[in-house]
From TrEMBL:
Catalytic reaction(s) noted: (S)-3-amino-2-methylpropanoate + 2-oxoglutarate = 2-methyl-3-oxopropanoate + L-glutamate; 4-aminobutanoate + 2-oxoglutarate = succinate semialdehyde + L-glutamate
Protein species of origin: Sinanaerobacter chloroacetimidivorans
InterPro entries noted in UniProt: 4NH2But_aminotransferase_bac, Aminotrans_3, Aminotrans_3_PPA_site, Class-III_PLP-dep_AT, PyrdxlP-dep_Trfase, PyrdxlP-dep_Trfase_major, PyrdxlP-dep_Trfase_small
Enzyme Commission (EC) number: 2.6.1.19, 2.6.1.22
Record-linked CDD domains: OAT_like
Cofactor: pyridoxal 5'-phosphate
Biological processes annotated in GO: gamma-aminobutyric acid metabolic process
Pathway: Amino-acid degradation; 4-aminobutanoate degradation
GO terms assigned for molecular function: (S)-3-amino-2-methylpropionate transaminase activity; 4-aminobutyrate:2-oxoglutarate transaminase activity; identical protein binding; pyridoxal phosphate binding
Keyword tags: Aminotransferase, Pyridoxal phosphate, Transferase
PROSITE patterns the record matches: AA_TRANSFER_CLASS_3
PANTHER family on file: AMINOTRANSFERASE CLASS III, LEUCINE_METHIONINE RACEMASE
Classification lineage: Bacteria, Bacillati, Bacillota, Clostridia, Peptostreptococcales
Name assigned to this protein: (S)-3-amino-2-methylpropionate transaminase
């Protein structure tokens, strides 16, 4: 079975059939839709993908974090097929159907938010972040939002404003919505203040009170602070726990809503069901999407009930929101993840990978930083470990060398010098090590070691 196979390249990559389909894509699809691996999928199972030419790849991307449960999980496929036989989309604003409130109930049970909770279902992560901002503004009666450097929250207009990286996400798409303020993320490897974590005294958190609230935005005008527990597109950077605690205390002090964007970190990826389960404090709202439904589009906004109760009928929602197919898939995904201990799978993957990554760092000077939680990991590549000059071209070359040899991996970071790892959590140890071997050889070839 493909699910149990190892990588196998039988043609040039892309092969002849993919090359023909690439012509169709070039003539009919905008170049603005990005492409990582220039191949076309024939079928996919678990952590493995077979293209139309018969080449088999290990997938270390998982739909950019969408497939924590793996490609075409048999039980999820059956749950969706069963729902297809009943109805597709009667629209929750017209007819009630059980999948929407049952999924909301389940999410309310597992979300790390204190007290009574309610959940809104929408379609995409960007749409979820948009609604989180709407809810925070309505609840507080304030207009301003604080987001972080390195953040990615989507490509819609509000979320472009929240997103940090200019190219390719924001360049020449302005003007963007107002009311968004940017604060430096506590990126300890590249501290924006030039300090060291061991001796900085949590300088980044102090800067809110000592500078940001004095020079940029008054705290009593701020509706929400939106924070990725681990930066996603920004390079899988993990903030110090003490920073998050300070943030929570500050939000309590000024009546600011703390939003955790768990779109990429959620659903067992980091070794816990949600990354903010690691925090000693809890957010007021959690936004999640990607892996909740095994690849069918759905996104979730879960918040304290008092926040959700600040809006009235018709002010939130949409035509396809919480559609029965996606909701049925999500219910089955959550059942499987709890039953089969997916957070433990992520920890196991992380242990194997981090050991190999540190070994690679000893061999290759180009690896400046290794970081991660569970199965959400990154390598940062630099030309010089002292200056930390980004090795952008080398990173791109490593990624290309990998997919040519049967491993699909993805870059990240505002400097384009990180490789992030998001393999499906069903990957076998043999597949995992085969992928790491391909990566090791690719780094060796690019650095000629």
């Amino acid at each position: 079975m493909l699910r149990d196979s190892l990588p196998k390249i039988v043609t040039e990559v892309p092969g002849p059939k993919s090359q023909e389909l690439l012509k169709v894509r070039k003539n009919n699809v905008p170049d603005g839709v990005s492409m990582l691996a220039p191949v076309f999928v024939e079928k996919a199972e678990g952590a493995m993908v077979q293209d139309v030419d018969g080449n088999i790849f290990i997938d270390f991307v998982a739909g950019i974090g969408v497939l924590n449960i793996g490609h075409t999980h048999p039980e999820v496929v059956e749950a969706v097929k069963a729902q297809c036989d009943k109805y597709f989309a009667p629209n929750i604003n017209v007819f009630n159907y059980e999948q929407y409130p049952k999924l909301a109930e389940k999410l309310n049970q597992i979300m790390p938010i204190e007290g009574e909770k309610k959940t809104l279902l929408v379609n995409t992560g960007a749409e979820a972040d948009e609604n989180a901002v709407k809810l925070a503004r309505r609840y507080t009666g304030r207009s301003e939002i604080i987001a972080f450097a390195g953040a990615f929250h989507g490509r819609s207009y509000m979320t472009m404003a929240l997103t940090s990286k200019v190219k390719p996400y924001k360049f020449n798409f302005g003007p963007l919505p107002s009311g968004v303020h940017r604060f430096p993320f506590p990126y300890c490897y590249r501290c924006p203040y030039g300090l060291e974590k061991q001796t900085c005294g949590l300088h980044c958190a102090k800067m809110f009170e000592e500078s940001f609230f004095l020079e940029y935005v008054a705290p009593d005008q701020v509706a929400a602070i939106i924070l990725e527990p681990i930066l996603g597109e920004g390079g899988f950077v993990i903030p110090p726990d003490e920073f998050v605690t300070a943030l929570r205390n500050m939000c309590d002090k000024y009546g600011i809503v703390l939003i955790a964007d768990e779109i990429q970190t959620g659903y067992a990826r980091t070794g816990k069901m949600f990354a903010c389960n690691y925090w000693a404090v809890k957010p007021d709202m959690v936004v999640s999407a990607k892996s909740v439904a095994g690849g069918i589009p759905i996104a979730c906004v879960t918040a304290k009930a008092e926040i959700m109760n600040s809006v009235t009928a018709g002010e939130i929602g949409g035509t396809y929101c919480g559609n029965p197919l996606a909701s049925a898939s999500a219910l089955k995904v959550l059942e499987i993840m709890e039953r089969d201990h997916y957070p433990e799978k992520a920890k196991h993957i992380g242990e194997i990978c981090m050991r190999r990554f540190y070994e690679m760092q000893q061999k290759y000077e180009i690896i400046g930083n290794v970081r991660g939680k569970g199965a959400m990991m990154a390598l940062e590549f630099v030309k010089d470990r002292t200056t930390k000059e980004p090795a952008k071209d080398e990173t791109k070359a490593i990624i290309q060398e990998c997919w040519k040899n049967g491993l699909v991996i993805l870059g990240a970071g505002v400097r384009d010098n990180n490789i992030r790892f998001l393999m499906p959590l069903v990957i076998t140890d043999d597949q995992l090590n085969a992928g790491l071997d391909i990566l090791d050889k690719a780094i060796a070839k690019v650095t000629q070691k």
